Amino acid sequence: MNIVEWSDALLLDFEPMDGVHREFVDLLALAQSAPDATLPQAWAAVVDHTVEHFGREDDWMRKTRFSAAENHIIQHRVVLNVLREGLAMARAGQMDAVREMAGELAVWFAKHTQSLDAALALHMRREPAGGGAPRHARGGGTTAHAHL
Ligand SMILES: [Fe+2]
Ligand SMILES: [Fe+2]
């Protein structure tokens, strides 16, 4: 199984995304190391977090009219549906299938982060107001970004 692991190669230099991605890696690692008895609960935590994670990225793309949004949003939706199927499998006791899915998710996440999310991060860093990033994300930075 491919065990998820944080690596600086996943950093996108956009803290609102990097922070969420670190949390995702932590939660997926917990699920991958969970015994059967707690795997359904650990997988549910991954799914809940992913709803927030993808929802936030989708929001940024819509609010800033990101040109490559459609493909990215569709990919989120497809993956989230798969993860929800995984939750049903975990609750039905099909732990091997869920563990296999977790390994595939780890591989997918690295690829997605380094391609579609990297493009979104680049776009968000160029947004004058951070494109809807959480207000606390840019401490003390009140300088106007006139030059993009
Ligand atoms: Fe992401
Ligand atoms: Fe994404």
Automatic annotation (TrEMBL):
Pfam family, one: Hemerythrin
Molecular function GO terms recorded: metal ion binding
UniProt keywords, alphabetically: Iron, Metal-binding
Region (Disordered): 127-148
The Hemerythrin-like domain, residue ranges: 17-114
Family: Belongs to the hemerythrin family.
Protein name from the UniProt record: Hemerythrin
